[in-house]
Amino acid sequence: MANYRFKIEDFFPKKLFYQITDVRVEEPESVVKHAQKRKRRNKLTRDGKLVILAADHPGRRVTALRNDAIGMGDRYEYLGRVLRVITGEQFDGVMGTTDMVEDILIVDYLYERKTGKSFLDGKVITGCMNRGGQAGSMYEMEDGFTSFTPESLKKMSLDGGKMMYRFDPSDHGSLVTIKECADAITQLGRLGLYAFVEPVTVEGKEKSHAFKTDIETLVRDVGAAAALGETSLGTWLKISYNGDFERIARSTTLPVLLLGGPAKESPLDTIKAFAAAMKSAPNVRGAMVGRNVTFVKDDDPRAIAMALSMIVHEGYSTQDAMKYMDKNRGQEMDFFSTSF
Asked: With the C-alpha atoms ordered 330, 332, 338, 340, is the resulting torsion angle positive or negative?
């Protein structure tokens, strides 16, 4: 890794990036048709487990990346890194806001038009639903449903919807969000779609809200989230990792996905945490992770994603996963350039 530096321009041609706007202007209807004919999986999982890439942060004004306030604000860089991950055959899928999912669909449409192949066939694609609680705003706890709706997810032939409720016992906006989440879960269930729910308790601060990740709080969050909606049969929970994760996972029978949290300097911490968590309880079934795959300094997002996938699907140890990552770093960088 010492001499390696991932360069987005080597993987994602700018010519292809700028064609996305052309499709948006000239033939937006083709994107919907392309989404509707995508080959979906017969079942959500192949082996009862999932690794999903989260790509929804900018939709809530979250663009900071370590010391760069707008590090995730460059759509060319961000989208290219997301594509780097999901074009890998081993990775399960992606979750994003309407604009991000449609960008990905447009690139797949253009790629299929050139090659006759789709890199999204068989992938799990989930739409983010509530981004109304803009980060740092006075109404952040009232996290309204401003992105995908259950109906639009069904229309685009996506697999489910992701939502977050942030609970602050001193903020009435939390109640509004929780009620909207319950209604969304109910509607997704009626449409035969899955709900991915991320419950968090927060502590209000002067300019921001901090997540609480102690065991007592997480156990209560899990219990509350599992009870939302008229059915929980299609609900997966997305939970922050805590060292005593067995106790947290044991507070529900619902499948649990790990979230990645703030961007780290190295993939090692994320890989260690996920390797430990996957062994903690049988209902821990994978991860929904974003910045700690797409933006880990100079490393290759796909190599990190493949290592996490091997931990989840093959039970790799931290050491084996790191070796696998080293072996696959920088592979298939010409995925798009040979066609565009």
From this structure: negative
Each residue's pLDDT tens digit, 61-110: 888 888 889 988 999 999 999 999 999 988 999 999 999 999 999 999 99
Q: Which amino acid is at 144?
A: G
Question: Do 300 and 10 meet the contact criterion of CB atoms below 8 Å apart?
Answer: no
Angstrom distance (rounded) from CA 249 to CA 277: 9
Q: Which of 167, 184, 171, 143 is nearest to 223 (CA)?
A: 167
Q: How buried is 241 (Cβ within 10 angstroms: 0-12 exposed, 13-18 middle, 19+ buried)?
A: buried
CA angle 237, 238, 241 (to 5 degrees): 125
> Strand ranges (DSSP E) for the chain?
50-55, 93-96, 124-128, 160-167, 194-204, 209-211, 235-240, 256-259, 284-289
Angle at 149 between CA 286 and CA 287, to 5 degrees: 10
Residue type at position 179: K
In DSSP terms, 166 is beta-bridged to: 200
Burial class of 168 by CB neighbour count within 10 A (0 to 12, 13 to 18, 19+): middle
pTM for the model stands at 0.93
Asked if 11 and 84 touch (Cβ cutoff 8 Å), the reply is yes
pLDDT tens per residue across span 155-187 = 999 999 999 988 888 877 788 889 999 999 999
What values do phi and psi take at 240, rounded to 5? Answer: -65, 140
Distance CA 219, CA 216 (A): 5
Classify domain 13-328 by CATH number: 3.20.20.70
Q: In whole angstroms, what is the distance from residue 288 CA to residue 196 CA?
A: 9
Distance CA 268, CA 322 (A): 8
Q: Among all chains, which residue has been given the structure tokens 């009870």?
A: 227
